[in-house]
Amino acid sequence: MALIVTDENYRELLKGDKPVMLDFWAEWCGPCRMVGPIIDELATEYKESVVIGKVDVDDNSDIVVEFGIRNIPTILFFKNGMLVDKQVGAAGKETLLEKINNLL
Q1: DSSP for residue 103
Q2: pLDDT computed for residue 104 by the predictor
Q3: Are 88 and 99 in contact (CB under 8 A)?
Q4: CA–CA dist 31, 9 (Å, integer)
Q5: Is 59 helix (H, G, I), strand (E, B) or coil?
Q6: How many domains does the chain have?
Q7: Residues 78, 22: contact at Cβ < 8 Å?
Q8: Sheet holding 51-56: strands in order across?
Q9: Structural domain of residue 64, as residue ranges?
Q10: Which residues are catalytic?
Q11: What confidence category does residue 26 fall into, taking pLDDT thresholds of 50, 70 and 90?
Q12: What is residue 75's predicted lDDT score, i.e. its pLDDT?
């Protein structure tokens, strides 16, 4: 299961020593609901090597504004606290796996 990421905890996550993948989503977003199970599956598979979290855009405006999220789902990939990749729109597991493996 993916970590719940909020305006209050995301900065600490980005300071950690593991790469971070953040899924920006909303309950009302159909494509987000399609990607959600894939995100949770990846969070379980990569729990030892990558922090994988979900950001509800309706409840966390600070992080949404900071990273300029305009469309959802948007998935951001961080390494050493720096944004290194992004996926805008729904993507399959293979695409996300490739992006995660590029972080490692």
Answers
A1: H
A2: 92
A3: no
A4: 25
A5: coil
A6: 1
A7: yes
A8: 3-5, 51-56, 20-25, 74-79, 82-88
A9: 3-103
A10: 29, 32
A11: very high
A12: 98
Phi then psi for 53, rounded to 5 degrees?
Answer: -135, 165
Reading the block at residue 27, the tokens are: 């309950």
How many whole angstroms separate alpha carbon 48 and alpha carbon 60?
26
Q: Tell me which DSSP letter residue 4 carries.
A: E
Tokens of 44: 């379980």
Q: What percent of the chain has pLDDT over 90?
A: 98
61-70 per-position pLDDT tens digit:
999 999 999 9
Report the pLDDT value the prediction gives residue 41, as an integer from 0 to 100: 96
Phi, psi of 97 (to 5 degrees): -60, -45
Give the pLDDT mean for 39-57. 97
Strand partners, 77: 21, 85
Helix axes 93-103, 30-45, angle to 10 degrees: 50
When the pLDDT of each residue in the chain is averaged and rounded to a whole number, the result is 96
Domain at 65, CATH number: 3.40.30.10
pTM of the model: 0.95
